[in-house]
Batch of 3 targets.
Target 1
Amino acid sequence: MRAKKSEHTPVRTICTIEARMRSTRLPGKVLKPILGRPMLALLIERLQRVRQVDQIVVATTDNPIDDPIVELACQLGTKYFRGSEEDVLDRVLRAARSVNADLIVETTGDCPLIDPGVIDQLIATFMSNPVDYCANLLSRSYPRGMEAQVFPVAVLAQVAELTQDPADREHVSLYICEHPEQFRLLDIASGLPPQDADLRLTVDTQEDFDLVRHVFESLYPINPHFSMSDILALFKRHPELRRLNENIQQKAVR
């Protein structure tokens, strides 16, 4: 069964942010300060500029260690939901249901540089095509850290019934991506040259954080609404920045 969209039915679109304090390589990274503010706060600020999102929900865990994330969400007036630390799929699904969402834009707290314009493009593309899932990560054409995924709550609910595989439950949309025979998938390509698509703008390690902090410190004071194009221009002016985290390897999902 595939989720169907009606052109006449309003779609309530939310953006979920998966965030927790426990991280294998860089514990507490989502609240590490950049320009005197928690990294998660800067991400929320950027996501608030996505025109087609009705609400942002921080999907954190019910582990007491994540109380500071809840406190930050409350300070910012951002909705939050607490659920399972291991079953992230269930956490995101319940977070979406808690605000009566129809459509999920899935993001993670370790991608604070994500471009709101890229997300708006993904949502618009999803809404104008008969698909179950739209993303920009099925083929690596965007810098790592610019990824977002768009899919209906109904599709995620279907997936929750289909799999109990630990990897599927930890990586929310993995089952969707790995089963094109069941779901209609659409990937957006950036058209960027390989040297730009290979950039690592996500935060898993201290080296990653140092790079992202440098980007914010270079661009935010000049223009808080800086885009992916501004980031790429910064790297062209300062190619040495690539060396800060070029040796970091992304962890495999399986």
Target 2
Amino acid sequence: MTATPPALGARAWATVVLVGLVGQLAWTIENMYLNVFVYNTITTDPTVIAVLVAASAVAATLATLAVGAWSDRVGRRREFIAVGYVLWGATTAAFGLVRPQLPDGVALGAPEAARAVGVAVVTIVVLDCVMSLFGSGANDAAFNAWVTDSTTPANRGRVDGVLATLPLVSMLIVFGLLDGLTQRGDWELFFGIVGATTAAVGVVAWFLVRDRRPLERVADGYLASLVHGLRPSTMRAHPRLYVTLLAVAILGVSSQVYLPYLIIYLQRFLRIDAYALALGVVLILASALSVAAGRFIDRVGKVRAILPLTALLLAGLVGMFLARGLVSVIVAGTVMMGGMLGAGAAAAATVRDHTPAGRVGMVQGLRMVALVLVPMVVGPFIGAAVIVGANETYVDLGVERQVPTPWMFLFAAAIALLVAVPVTWLRRLPEERP
């Protein structure tokens, strides 16, 4: 039997919740509402959304690899978190300024309009990449490394269970307080509020975050530290870490098949006018499930918890494929989101447990490859192919527009089934020394 998990401390919990929540607030805007913004104001082509997601994933991964190795070298996280959040907020606020600049009297189908849309697409992709550099350096690299520094194997399931709820809580805040701005088309204020909040938390983080001392620092050079995790010798030395990252990647690809198109699906395919209410209820209930999952993970063990929580995710995905009304969407969506976050929390806590000493920041870069780069490059294009293949459309102001279909949930479920392979492999690998 294990003893009661050691307390994290009020200041550390405050850092986890405040810095983590506002970071997820900014990621919610980028991962979900930026897609809606592009769909509503620039182009409805799902391939553009897939390119946007993939390009930002590449930028985010490179930033996490670079900043993670850098913070390992200097042995500090606070400065990267605080300064990064301020710059992250500034670039987030700039999203609302991007629009196709159509000359007066130019029709939507004219070549001039196509060029204006093309310029807007390039601008939003570049800006998203810049934003992802700052956001991932601050949040995915520095903040997540700080969480690993500040926790122990005994309390990581609980901490990662709370962290897993923060994306849902952030969505709930956005839906409850800010969605009306998007409905009215007031995108400048929408992005501006989130950007200002993110920057303000960066200032607060300068005084709130305390690095855990002393951090074990690596002795090799920066470039050697940067590529250390990509070496075959490192993979052979830490097989449990890399097999767990494979499980993280599979779960991530599954989620990215449908997440970029979820709000559009509820709006345009199911025609649920109260989609914000539906998502709000789902987020509250799924957050409660995720917190309960954190306790379940600590009780039964992180690796043993992954498959039962993935089974919950599969049930929710099948339910979303069948759901057509408000109530059925709420039920299926709660199961889907709860399973997705619970399985992700178990896998994330396992990654922390198998992080080599002195390489915490480096592992955040590897985690981004598995959690962001691979899923966001592969998943949205699978989703876009499913949408294009289904060829469901509607007409808006005389323009035929493609719309997401429920088949994307079945494709996501098929991918999620593959997580059984690395989990079975992981159970057979011998335990490693910390």
Target 3
Amino acid sequence: MTSAPIDPRSAWDLPGFGGLPPVEQLSDSVTRVLAPNPSHMTLDGTNTYIVGSAGSGALFVIDPGPPDPVHLGRVQATLAASDAECAAILVTHHHLDHSEAALAWGTRLGATVWASSAEVAGPEGRLLSPGDPISAGGFSIETVPTPGHTADHVSFRLPDASVLCGDHILGRGTSVVAWPEGDLVAYLESLRRVRDLGPSVLYPGHGPHLGENPGAVVDYYLEHRAWREQAILDALDHDPALSQAPNQLVEILYADIDSRLWPAAELSTRAGLVKLSEEGRLPAGSRLPLDSSAPDLSGGDGS
């Protein structure tokens, strides 16, 4: 098996796990409010972003996360400190650690919820339209479709070319592409779409923001997926029967990874097997698992 690609972030001075403050202003137009839901899947917690023009009186809240009263209080305090109201709540995708509080917060803050999923947006919400800007207070946000992690995943491009990328790209590690909803082909296409945007900064759904060389991180994600794909092929060349036992395949391919992440890795591996099968690249004697049993991540992300 070829060597793993080198993660450019390993040489950056990024905060360690648990090092993100509860509230941090990241730029003139972006403040991160960290939800208190840390885990091996959500990293430090869900990053809720408050975005817009300072002094405009109208700011966006992106990915409210869990319905935690302390988290809501910090978001409200951040809005109040800017003498602003919530213009709208935007959601990158339906996973609960990003969307669960959306409808309740919409009611509490008097704001419309925007999402790609009608279930997340709710009966009074609005569906996001790719490419169309959402504007308030003289500030416009462009919706960029980035399916793959989930079918309804979108990212948001700001006027300074920074991109709020949800779980498409994480501040640490790599994102899970969870079979059966996760689509590896769509995910790779979305990574290329984000790379072609030339992001000035990546603001992920979990972990620290990435401003030193965001394009290099996207390239690493593409290289990482290609490496994982080749590792699957190498393992199946040695033992085609492993295609019927993704959990055993994961124990081999992810032996150096925290075993708590193996269920997520199995879902990504299953997505990889589907891609290779559709492309006719599975080695002779290999076939997709006949059973549909797979780990349940219960709305988590990461790895």
